[in-house]
Amino acid sequence: MSARRKPSKRHRVPFRARLRRDWPLLLMTLPGALVLLVFHYLPALGNVVAFQDYNPFAGDSPLQAFLGSEWIGFANFENLFSSDAFWESVWNTLSITAFQLVFFFPLPIALAILLNSVLSTRLRSFIQTVVYLPHFFSWVLVVTFFVQMLGGAGLLAQEMREAGLQPWNIMTNPDTFIILVTAESVWKDVGWGTIIFLAALSTIDTDLYEQSAVDGASRWRRLWHVTLPGLRPVIVLLLILRLGDALSVGFEQFILQRDAVGRGAAEVLDTFVYYHAIATGDYGFGAAAGLFKAAIGLVLILAANKMAHLLGERGIYSKS
Amino acid sequence: MSVQLATKLRKPSRRPAWEEKPTPVGLAVKGLVLTAVVLAVLVPLWTVVVTSLSSRQTINEAGGLVMIPKGIDASAYVTIFSGGTVTKALWISTLVTVAGTAVSLLLTVLAAYGLSRPGSLGHRSLLFYFLLTFLIYPGLVPSYLVVTGLGLKDSLWSLILPTAVSVFNLVVIRAFFQAIPQELLDSARIDGAGELRILIRIVLPLSKAVIAVVGLFYAVGYWNTWFNALLYIDDNDKFPIQRILQSIVLQGQSPTFSGLPVGTAMPPTLAVKMAVVVVAVAPIAIVYPFIQRHFVKGVILGAIKG
């Protein structure tokens, strides 16, 4: 540890000397900071168009149009909150989040425990290699694979027709859409999701297993009393992240399939913003929906983190 | 840190003496589940590859997708590489991926190094500035207005700049940089080396693995870019491969091919579609195995320290 890390020493070095010493570091940080300023913080501030009757034709560039557009207070939000389509998209989003918490969230944990019990290192790393792969596919590819396998002209339908059965088309059925999107998410990310749990499993002290085995605990009791408590901090952390992100269920996945199953099932908050702002040009209204989502999201993540602290877990960030 | 973890992750591949022998039923269930999981990934890939290499006759016999190959017919690939929309899209995607990854790595590595020294001038506030992006959401509408306002509509930069810096990747690299023994850097500093020189000569050679993993993350992101292209690219000649994949395979539009001699028999549409899927997957599938073994280390380190 160098002395520089001690805060007491730090304050004794005068500002000019620190500037002379650290200017190369500042210069290196600058380009990245600028990119974030322009493409992250500027749009974050730009959310104020939610309070405007933004007219893209009020000027030659978006900036001029912004300056030339009328401020209308909360009118966009009033329209938004009285729009049935908006509440439908909120409802769809929350249902999908809830559904995936039950049917997706536990799967990587189960798969990680299963993988961890495979004794052969080579077999285990082969399985890992295969199941991580879909994480790197784009949503266009994932949806393509599902259409080719399960769609009306896909492999499953083809085999069923050959067997003399009536094929069904799960890809265009709005009633089963929630199952479909969950299956797609599972296919894409269940393997990737195991990484963090495998890491947590490897930090559990093997003596605990040995001692409980000697004390007569069966494998299921060891799973319940040693493995799951060992995974608890990671599970809580990921639950918090998921809850804080409850209003995001993915974007591309839904835009890609919205036409096939219809708006009623596939409209989520993000696609609502896209279709009501970018596609139709009602920017103020769409921005209001986006700002609503961002505000609720921020509250959710702060609340979930608070809850984790109350439960005695570390959470995502601590007050230090 | 990373060394400790790596050794911990390697489990002994023998069953400890105190553990009971698995029951046959348990073993069978385990094997079945794992086989199903692996097949769920491999069967679609296999089917797509085999169909893309099948002749019209084989496809007609199978009634669609082909699972059992009968001979190899590469005409679908000849067609899509002969020029026209798919070839163009592949060039665009390659360009975006290479340029984007280079820009991203440059920005991220520089910033990660700049932020790797606690106690340096402005360290705390700058770090806060970067990490705050996790909590503040830019919003689709204002992002769209900013990018188009900068005149990036129909420019390939619109696929690169908005996603150029991933703070998550930055945190991963920064954690790695901080794990390098400070004495090494201090001695170089005493010898009169500047920060950039230290970064290039000492830090980067020690960080090849993490740079490779982060580079792969960026590259995959750029290769997969679809939504930004939907937002910002209207010019058909600048569509990246994912947009073409979507229009050909999901929306059923027929691609155009310019380079084929007049009168050439067209390969079956399904084979062409599947060939487009294969070329969209191929770069990922090829690069992936080389870098896969570094994932666990890189990702975990980031997760624990971040």
Automatic annotation (TrEMBL), chain A:
Residues 90-304 form the ABC transmembrane type-1 domain. It is found in: Cell membrane. Gene3D superfamilies: MetI-like. GO terms for molecular function: ATP binding. The chain crosses the membrane at residues 21-42, 90-115, 136-157, 283-304. The keyword Membrane applies. Belongs to the binding-protein-dependent transport system permease family. This is Polysaccharide ABC transporter ATP-binding protein. It comes from Phytohabitans aurantiacus.
From TrEMBL, chain B:
Keywords: Cell membrane, Membrane, Transmembrane, Transmembrane helix, Transport. This is ABC transporter permease. Residues 90-287 form the ABC transmembrane type-1 domain. It comes from Phytohabitans aurantiacus. PANTHER family: ABC TRANSPORTER PERMEASE PROTEIN MG189-RELATED-RELATED (PTHR43744), POLYGALACTURONAN_RHAMNOGALACTURONAN TRANSPORT SYSTEM PERMEASE PROTEIN YTCP (PTHR43744:SF9). The lineage of its organism: Bacteria, Bacillati, Actinomycetota, Actinomycetes, Micromonosporales. The chain crosses the membrane at residues 27-50, 89-114, 126-147, 159-177, 198-220, 270-291. InterPro entries: MetI-like, MetI-like_sf. Pfam families: BPD_transp_1. It is found in: Cell membrane. It is a multi-pass membrane protein. Residues 1-20 are annotated as: Disordered.
